[in-house]
Write a structure and sequence with these properties.
The structure holds two protein chains of two kinds. Chain A is built from nine helices and ten strands. By secondary structure, chain A is of the alpha/beta class. The N terminus of chain B is likely disordered. The chains are: A alpha/beta, B mainly alpha.
Chain lengths: 266, 315
């Protein structure tokens, strides 16, 4: 996988993609007011690994992803990307975020820009890719994810599934080495979920390092190398899917999975 | 129910579905799915007749009251004398009065210059007030005090304060400007306070998730503001902005109190030298001609925005 040339590699502080361990998180804590959402999370993700985060709403999955992308500043704990600490003071967050794409539950596309501009904005403004080249690359990505021909449409003219695929394309246009997916199918009508999951499968097959917060248990079981079960701001259990789904060690994991099965979601 | 009844519910709802039995949904006289219209748009001939008749009746009553009032003849001569209106419109410096029509050019120039400066100054103030950096804290307090001050003090007093106070300071350059410059400065100071609040509402109307999306792509704060936040914010506030500018167009008349010969001041001079107020009617008509196109333009933008939102919601 070709790494983008981060303009600030010379500073020594910015992470440079490469190495076996893509993400390392230690003792991550995060509160919103009196509400402590993350109560000390440790997580390690290897390069090319796909890790799924499962757990009830409010267990801290989304906050964990947002902290990993530095969208939320951590209260305590440290985060490394490829061995470089990104929670260190003085780190250029914009530089870090170039390598880490995130896709949100509610798409968060830019409604005032057409499809092509949604995709090319960041490459042209952040990486200073020439416009023509950025557009060519955007078209190639749109083609890969079945959106070619929609370049001049505005996001509100597209289905939810198309919008979410566009959001993934927009993140990929920055050529990130890590993708964080935050319940990307939760806002979709059931019949549109599959097309987005297929896109994620394709990404996983291409070797993308991914951390996926999801409620789609069947999908997590298929795609993940490891599944982490979160409850009340802690990772309760961290195991390969075959083990976690069939033979969970922790009573809390068993209780959660039982509720999922009862609801017919697994 | 056999007569279509106008109802407010038609203003928002889609066209009523057919109710069966061949009965078409009521047209809701004028409140079609295209939003409230001035005239009964899709109302057919009957609605047109009704609206025409009611308009004529209302106008007729108003004109009758005006014509039958005991002092009608005096008022008509004082305010609507065609000779005086024409005289004040073209002006006659030899007789000591100016053309109201030519003086309007000053209003237009003041408006155009003030508008641009207001848009810039108000945006700066709004951005400072929305900033979170601790370094900018003193500026935040200052901009808040500024908005409080200039929204609270009547515009007329600001015009006097600037127009009489600054020259009295006897500063080089600053104190030797023309009255229209001081008047325009007062308008800029006062309106920027209002417009900055409009901007702020616009910035707040852009959801926080848009900031997150932009920053997550590696865009820096200023770049995210420039390409993602501001365009959406400005789009949301164009109607209220234009509304403020319609108001600004007429408030350029206040510059006249400093002695600058703008349309209202020219009319004033005519009235006091010729003892006839028809010049004020001329000024009023000229201001109307100036503001009405902008008002209709605002309506069109609001309508376009509404249609776009409707289209977005149905796909």
């Amino acid at each position: 996988m070709s790494a983008p040339d981060p303009a600030g590699t010379g500073t020594g502080a910015a992470p440079v993609p490469g190495g076996a361990e893509a993400i390392r998180i230690e003792g991550l804590r995060k509160s919103f007011g009196p509400n402590e959402v993350l109560k000390g999370v440790d997580l390690s993700v290897a390069t090319h690994e796909v890790v799924c985060l499962i757990g009830a709403s409010g267990s801290g999955k989304s906050t964990l992803l947002r902290c990993a992308n530095l969208l939320e500043p951590a209260d305590a704990g440290r985060i490394w990307l490829w061995g470089a600490e990104v929670t260190a003071p003085g780190i250029d967050q914009n530089l870090v975020r170039r390598h880490v794409g995130i896709v949100f539950q509610s798409f968060n596309l830019f409604p005032h820009m057409n499809v092509l501009r949604n995709v090319t904005l960041a490459p042209t403004k952040v990486l200073r890719t020439p416009r023509a080249q950025a557009q060519d690359e955007a078209r190639a990505l749109l083609d890969r994810f079945g959106l070619l021909g929609r370049e001049s449409d505005f996001p509100d003219r597209m289905s939810g599934g198309q919008q979410q695929r566009l959001a993934i394309v927009r993140a990929l246009a920055m050529k990130p080495q890590i993708m964080l997916l935050d319940e990307v199918t939760s806002a979709l009508d059931p019949e549109l979920v599959a097309e987005v999951l297929d896109v994620i499968r394709e990404l996983a097959a291409s070797g993308m390092t991914m951390v996926i917060a999801t409620h789609e248990m069947g999908f997590a079981r298929d795609i993940a190398h490891r599944v982490c079960f979160l409850e009340e701001g802690r990772i309760i259990e961290d195991a390969p899917p075959a083990e976690l789904f069939t033979n969970p060690k922790d009573e809390r994991t068993r209780r959660f999975l039982r509720r999922i099965v009862d609801a017919g979601r697994l | 129910m056999d007569e279509p009844q106008p109802g407010p519910q038609g203003a928002t709802g889609p066209p009523a579905p057919s109710m069966g039995g061949g009965w078409q949904g009521p047209d809701l006289a004028g409140f079609s799915s295209r939003g409230p219209r001035l005239l009964g748009g899709g109302g057919g001939r009957r609605a047109t007749v009704v609206s025409t008749v009611s308009t004529l009746v209302v106008l007729g009553v108003l004109v009758a009251v005006f014509l039958l009032a005991p002092g009608s003849a005096t008022v008509r001569h004082a305010f609507f004398s065609p000779t005086n209106m024409w005289q004040s419109f073209i002006g006659n410096p030899k007789k000591g009065y100016y053309s109201v029509g030519a003086a309007l050019w000053l209003n237009i120039r003041i408006f155009l210059v003030a508008e641009v400066l207001i848009l810039i100054l108000a945006l700066l103030i709004a951005l400072i007030r929305q900033s979170t950096s601790p370094v900018l804290f003193p500026l935040r307090v200052l901009s808040m005090a500024y908005v409080d001050l200039f929204r609270g003090v009547p515009l007329l007093l600001v015009v006097y304060a600037i127009g009489l106070g600054i020259p009295a300071l006897s500063l080089p350059f600053i104190s030797s400007q023309s009255n229209s410059v001081y008047g325009a400065a007062a308008l800029v100071l006062s309106y920027s306070a209002y417009v900055s609040e409009v901007y702020r509402a616009g910035l707040n109307s852009v959801h926080q998730s848009q900031v997150a999306a932009a920053r997550s792509l590696g865009l820096s704060q200023p770049v995210a503001l420039r390409y993602v936040i501001l365009p959406q914010a400005v789009r949301n506030i164009i109607p209220p902005l234009l509304n403020d500018f319609i108001s600004l167009q007429k408030d350029t008349a206040l510059v006249g109190v400093l002695g600058a010969i703008e349309a209202n001041q020219a009319a004033q001079i005519y009235a006091s030298s010729q003892f006839n107020y028809s010049s004020f009617t001329v000024a009023a008509i000229l201001f109307l001609i100036l503001t009405i196109p902008l008002a209709r333009f605002t309506d069109r933008l609001i309508e376009r925005d509404r249609r776009r939102r409707l289209a977005g919601a149905t796909t």
